[in-house]
């Protein structure tokens, strides 16, 4: 087990390095480079810009710049936001809760519904439910998340007036109930695509588990079908799902950005878009790196959990 | 013991097993029909409609659909939505298609080389693929779109840059398994060069998963283009695209909901048809179902 952990951890480090290189390349692709904020300032002369470039060390070879940048990232110096002068990490930190709340609740919804649909589809293979679930999943994967959100706002906020059309809470009412009220639509909208993905994978995983020998044994022993399902099949089917949860992380972040835009949810995705609009590149880069690090960490955690839960991997 | 049924050996390609299996997949046929009709509508439609997509008629703004000879209504500037929809379709479909071509090309190249050579070349290439996959697609897309000029060609390129990784993964896995087959060993014994084996022997046998990946990549590319255009970083007005038609629609949701509903339906139809076709192709090309 420790050998496995060490190897997995080393892999993550390598991945982090590669990710940082890609990030650095993107950073330097931005027109004007790190001096972009001054590109449009009429008061800045070429001489001034040259002096700044010298001061910020932009004349050094790219390799040196990269290591300097990476070292600063590791130390926690992610730059200063162009917009309000606050450290980038502080700015990101302010928006973390909103995004995690959204991602967390939609993941819970997606897992709950997706698992149920997948298991039901597997146990009643080729039934009407199964066909409907399969086609429904494929269509759900084809619906643009933001469009689904707009339709949701139109039906539930404008026509029916049941749910608020945006924001995390109503001003003047910050109760938990209010938060939940605002959370419902964005979570469901974000969850749609993931329900589709989960249900399809769960169906396959359940089918795989049902065809195993130990299920035949359990049935022969006289265990009731329901108990067979609950105790033996579902547990084994859920194993690859843990890995799937890790792999889905970047996809959830993508969906979160779009959902936050439509519902004016004050999260990291909205921050990313706003910062792009303001040309606030330090925050943009910070969020890019943050999301990549989050994904790598998430995958690492998922793999460790699977190793802890599945004895076959530990003892291999 | 099960008896093997002798299947008719195809002498013409339209009699092949793969085609027959594909044609029995109802959903895939539906997808094919939908996308054919949609493409036809986008190519021919603007010539058949009474209004031009660029004609601004402020007297006819916000006309609802099915009420006048603006068949699908008009937008805030009085432009005919049906005409705009089909012109936008041309751009969205073209961007999707060419983004697929580019990402298939890059992904297959990387996948074949990584899969066949193995060793540290494969390790470096596949770790790079993993690195790219660690970024949420839209974050990367938006950062690149903001950094570079947003012309349709540029959009196609950056969508391809964020889509080639999945293809590379699939191709690498396929090549890795094909590498162990006897025909590769035979090729090596015959003294065939490495490139010859990679691209003239192994690659043609890996086409199945590549074709499936291609259809699914088109679906994904169309969706990604819609996302970034909706957010304002993709195809810029006055060029219409399904995504940027939805850009201004949110503020008019109460008064003119058709502005939001109609382009979304077009996107959903296009993307789901490619998903259906990809699913059908995957089933048709699945070797495990073969009896012979």
How does this model look, in words?
The complex is a heterodimer of chains A (316) and B (292). With 316 residues, chain A is mainly alpha-helical. Chain A has a domain at 91-279 and 296-309: MetI-like (MetI-like fold, Orthogonal Bundle), CATH 1.10.3720. Chain A is 77% helix and 0% strand. Chain A contains 13 helices and no strands. Chain A has helices spanning 2-29, 46-55, 62-75, 88-123, 128-142, 145-159, 176-210, 213-221, 225-247, 249-262, 268-277, 281-309, 311-314. In chain A, helix 4 (88-123) runs antiparallel to helix 5, helix 7 (176-210) runs antiparallel to helix 10 and helix 9 (225-247) runs antiparallel to helix 12 (281-309). The longest helix of chain A has 36 residues, at 88-123. Chain B has 292 residues and is mainly α. Chain B has a single domain, classed as Orthogonal Bundle (MetI-like fold). Chain B contains twelve helices and no strands. The longest helix of chain B has 37 residues, at 81-117. The interface between A and B is large, with 43 and 44 residues. Chain B: The chain crosses the membrane at residues 27-49, 93-116, 128-147, 153-171, 210-235, 255-278. Chain B: Residues 89-278 form the ABC transmembrane type-1 domain. Chain B: Belongs to the binding-protein-dependent transport system permease family. Chain B: It is a multi-pass membrane protein.
Largest sheet of chain A: none
Principal-axes geometry of chain B comes out as elongated
Q: What is the strand tally of chain B?
A: 0
Mean pLDDT of chain A: 84
CATH topology of the domain at 91-279 and 296-309 in chain A: MetI-like fold
- So how many helices of chain A? 13
Percent helix of chain B: 55-70%
- List SSEs of chain B in N-to-C order: HHHHHHHHHHHH
Strand fraction of chain A equals under 5%
User: What's the name of the CATH homologous superfamily of the domain at 91-279 and 296-309 in chain A?
Assistant: MetI-like
């Amino acid at each position: 087990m420790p050998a496995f952990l060490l190897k997995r951890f080393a892999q993550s480090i390598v991945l982090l390095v590669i990710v940082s290189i890609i990030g650095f390349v993107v950073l330097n692709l931005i027109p004007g480079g790190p001096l972009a904020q001054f590109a449009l300032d009429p008061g800045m002369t070429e001489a001034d810009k040259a002096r700044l470039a010298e001061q910020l060390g932009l004349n050094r070879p790219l390799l040196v710049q990269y290591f300097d940048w990476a070292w600063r990232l590791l130390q926690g110096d992610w730059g200063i936001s162009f917009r309000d002068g606050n450290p980038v990490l502080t700015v990101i930190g302010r928006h973390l809760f909103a995004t995690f709340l959204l991602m967390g609740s939609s993941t819970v919804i997606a897992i709950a519904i997706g698992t149920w649909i997948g298991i039901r589809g597997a146990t009643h293979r080729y039934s009407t439910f199964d066909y409907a679930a399969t086609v429904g999943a494929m269509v759900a994967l084809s619906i643009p998340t933001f469009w689904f959100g707009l339709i949701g706002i139109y039906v539930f906020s404008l026509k029916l007036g049941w749910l608020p059309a945006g924001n995390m809470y109503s001003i003047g009412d910050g109760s938990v109930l209010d938060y939940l009220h605002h959370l419902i639509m964005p979570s469901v909208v974000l969850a749609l695509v993931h329900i589709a993905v989960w249900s399809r994978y769960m169906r396959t995983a359940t089918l795989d588990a049902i065809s195993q020998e130990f299920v035949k044994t359990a049935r022969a022993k006289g265990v009731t079908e329901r108990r067979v399902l609950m105790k033996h099949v579902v547990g084994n089917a859920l194993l690859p799902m843990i890995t799937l949860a890790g792999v889905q992380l970047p996809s959830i972040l993508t969906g979160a950005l779009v959902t936050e835009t439509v519902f004016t949810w004050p999260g990291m995705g909205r921050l990313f878009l706003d910062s792009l609009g303001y040309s606030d590149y330090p925050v943009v880069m910070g969020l890019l790196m943050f999301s990549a690090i989050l994904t790598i960490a998430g995958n690492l955690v998922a793999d460790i959990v699977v190793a802890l839960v599945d004895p076959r991997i530990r003892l291999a | 013991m099960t008896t093997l049924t002798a299947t008719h050996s195809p002498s013409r390609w339209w009699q092949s097993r793969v085609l027959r299996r594909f044609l029995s997949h109802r959903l895939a046929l539906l997808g094919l029909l939908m996308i054919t009709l949609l493409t036809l509508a986008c190519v021919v439609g603007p010539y058949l409609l009474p209004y031009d997509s660029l004609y601004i008629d402020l007297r006819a703004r916000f006309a609802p659909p099915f009420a006048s000879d603006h068949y699908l209504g008009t937008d805030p500037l009085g432009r005919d939505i049906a005409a705009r929809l089909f012109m936008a379709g041309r751009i969205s479909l073209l961007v999707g298609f060419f983004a697929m071509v580019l990402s298939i090309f890059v992904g297959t190249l990387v996948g074949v080389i990584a899969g066949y050579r193995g060793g540290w070349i494969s390790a470096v290439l596949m770790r790079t693929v993993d690195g790219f996959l660690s970024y949420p697609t839209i974050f990367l897309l938006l950062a690149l779109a903001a950094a570079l000029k947003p012309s349709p060609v540029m959009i196609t390129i950056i969508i391809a840059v964020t889509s080639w990784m999945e293809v590379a993964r699939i191709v690498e896995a396929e090549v890795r398994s094909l590498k162990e087959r006897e025909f590769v060993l035979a090729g090596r014994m015959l003294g065939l060069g490495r490139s010859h084996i990679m691209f003239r022997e192994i690659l043609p046998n890996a086409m199945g998963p590549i074709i499936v990946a291609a259809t699914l990549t088109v679906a994904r590319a169309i969706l990604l283009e819609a996302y970034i255009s909706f957010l304002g970083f993709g195809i810029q007005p006055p060029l219409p695209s399904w995504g940027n038609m939805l850009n201004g629609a949110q503020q008019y949701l109460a008064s003119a909901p058709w502005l939001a509903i109609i382009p979304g339906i077009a996107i959903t139809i296009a993307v789901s048809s490619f998903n259906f076709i990809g699913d059908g192709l995957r089933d048709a090309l699945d070797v495990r179902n073969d009896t012979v």
